[in-house]
Amino acid sequence: MGNLSLETMENIMNITVYVFVFLFGITIGSFLNVCILRLPRGESLVKRNSHCMTCGTPIKWYDLIPVFSWLILRGKCRACGSKISPRYMLVESLTGVMFVGIFLRYNFFDYGLYPVMLCLFMAGLIVLCFQDIDNREMCVSVLIYTFIIAIASHVLNFITVDTQKLFFFPETDIRDGIYGMLSVSLVILVMGFVVTPLFYNAFVSEERKSLRGVKANLKRTSESDRNYKKLVAEKEALEAKIKEEGPVFGFGMGDVILMAAGGLMLGLKATITAGIIAVVLGAIYGVILKYIRRNDDSEDSNVFAFGPFLIIGLAVGAFVNGSLIDMYLNSLHIGR
């Protein structure tokens, strides 16, 4: 056998690195499954060993090998035979593929520690995504974690060793990160906590419409009128129902914090790209959900978590950066 060429050796080394990254990614994904399930319940991530959710039997180490154990066991508990959700394998596989994709997109030679930090950031987004799907709520601790990773990334950008930067990401600097942090998050804040409540109160809420009508009738009715007490009672009942319902917001604060952290990490153009993608996907999903639940009259029949769409947008933005925005702006320039 002749000596391997330099190109062949380089390809073998690259494949070895990507296989290692994938295996490391699915291992992290296994831990993310624990975070997704336990953090919303306030359970410890380390004190209690993994166990079957049906029979409570502790799971042996050889049944905890990410992806492969689920396939070998055919998605069933070894002890009781109950089904194990395929989502465990999905989260592990998704994390592994995401990590490999990041290292394919950003190599060490050009980007230093950036792919490592981006993997850590994306791990947090995966946890937030599935928590929001399950509970329509994101854990504050994980949101804080994503912010810490974003801040640490910019701090590392200033560190040099022998005049060589450890961390290099030419598309984003601290100024661009701040612009990104404020851009979409402020839009979501205003739309969710100002525009949506005003629109809902004025045009959507039947109770508020009825209350406005009752108040108008009260102004035209004297206290001696026999209907006056009835109107007062109706007014008080509507006010109590509205108070019990509470304010209606279009977004949660988790969405605002999520996009602030994403903007700081990825920069302005990538964050705007993420916002546009999220709105398009969310609108499509909303229409489909409306059709599927067209006969459901419950108050929250058309309510869904928007966080997963923001996270999908951020994931796409992390890979394309500002290229989609640049293509659009260039097309406008060409069209003139």
Describe this structure in words.
- Helix content is 68%, strand content 1%.
- It has 336 residues and is mostly helical.
- Among the domains are: 105 residues, no CATH class; 40 residues.
- The chain has a two-stranded antiparallel ribbon.
- A hairpin with a 2-residue loop joins β1 and β2.
- α5 packs antiparallel against α12, α7 packs parallel to α11 and α11 packs antiparallel against α12.
- The chain is globular.
- The N and C termini lie far apart (61 Å).
- The model has no long low-confidence stretch (mean pLDDT 86).
Mean pLDDT: 86
General shape? globular
Largest sheet: 2 strands, antiparallel
Helix percent band: 55-70%
Number of alpha- plus pi-helical segments: 13
Structural class estimated from helices and strands: mainly alpha
Q: What oligomeric state best describes the polypeptide chains here?
A: single chain
Count of beta strands: 2
Work out the strand percent.
Answer: under 5%
Radius of gyration: 26 Å
Order of helices and strands: HHHHHHEEHHHHHHH
Q: Going across the major beta sheet, what is the strand order? A: 1-2
Unreliable stretches covering 5 or more consecutive residues: none
N-C termini distance:
61 Å
